[in-house]
Write a structure and sequence with these properties.
The chain is of the alpha/beta class. It has a single domain, classed as Uracil-DNA glycosylase-like domain (Uracil-DNA Glycosylase, subunit E, 3-Layer(aba) Sandwich). Helix content is about 40%, strand content about 10%. It has a six-stranded mixed β-sheet with strand order 1-3-2-4-6-5. Strand 5 and strand 6 form a beta hairpin. Helix 4 crosses helix 8 and helix 5 packs across helix 6. The two termini are about 25 Å apart.
Length: about 230
């Protein structure tokens, strides 16, 4: 019961946040103007919480909600191409009940996985500023504290990696030596027998160019599943 209250308090704190004027203005402008194909929909237009199993052993950290994805649907990595790739890979590895994520009520359930982002509002040009990441960091810290069963973290992209490591250190954990550097499928030990994995972000910039393929992304989550099974 206390854990449920803590999660509920966190969700309220996230969705009511207005700390960053630039992000507030952008997310609300996008929600008013909308994209042509979504004109008949009501956009969420607020910060987006994490999503998934509260007893998860896998944590996935992305960058930020997409302007017409999470900022529209109200669920992280939902309703955009990046989410199509992410949840398909999670489904292939047994972490998701279905391979698609279209809206908050689509029936998607995550098993042993929790998905979040380093920044909680859709940023202009998909680029949060350093001070905006910093303003969001307490939310990630609270998620780390609540995810008591955590065994594996997957960082999607270099900025997600950097911001996860800052949060990990702020939570009082020693960082690996040498400090992890981003590379696709890179693997580093974390305190307490946990493991950090990296993947290219499933953005269209990476998937359209072939920098990230579906087998590459699925391989990262297959490795996460294997590490969890070994724990």
């Amino acid at each position: 019961m206390e854990a449920d209250l803590s999660w509920a308090r966190l969700a309220r704190a996230v969705t009511r946040c207005r700390q960053c004027p630039r992000l507030v203005a952008h997310r609300e402008a996008v929600a008013r103007e909308k994209r042509r194909q979504y004109r008949d929909q009501t956009y969420w237009g607020r910060p987006v919480t994490g999503f998934g199993d509260r007893r998860a052993r896998l944590l996935v950290v992305g960058l930020a909600p997409a302007a017409h994805g999470g900022n529209r649907t109200g669920r992280v990595f939902t309703g955009d191409r990046s989410g199509d790739w992410l949840y398909a890979a999670l489904h292939a590895a047994g972490f998701a009940s279905q391979p698609t994520a279209t809206h908050r009520d689509d029936g998607l359930v995550l098993h042993d996985a929790y998905v979040t982002a380093a920044a909680r509002c859709a940023p202009p040009d998909n680029k949060p500023l350093p001070e905006e990441f910093e303003a969001c960091r307490p939310f990630l810290l609270r998620e780390l504290a609540l995810l008591a069963e955590l065994r594996v973290v997957v960082a999607l992209g270099g900025l997600a990696l950097q911001n996860f490591l800052r949060a990990w250190a702020a939570a009082g954990h020693a960082l690996p030596t040498p400090r992890p550097r981003f590379a696709h499928a890179a693997e580093s030990p974390l305190a307490g027998g946990r493991t950090l994995l990296c993947s290219y972000h499933p953005s269209q910039q990476n998937t359209f160019t072939g920098r990230l393929t579906r087998p590459m992304l699925e391989g990262v989550f297959a490795r996460a599943a294997a590490l969890i099974a070994e724990a």
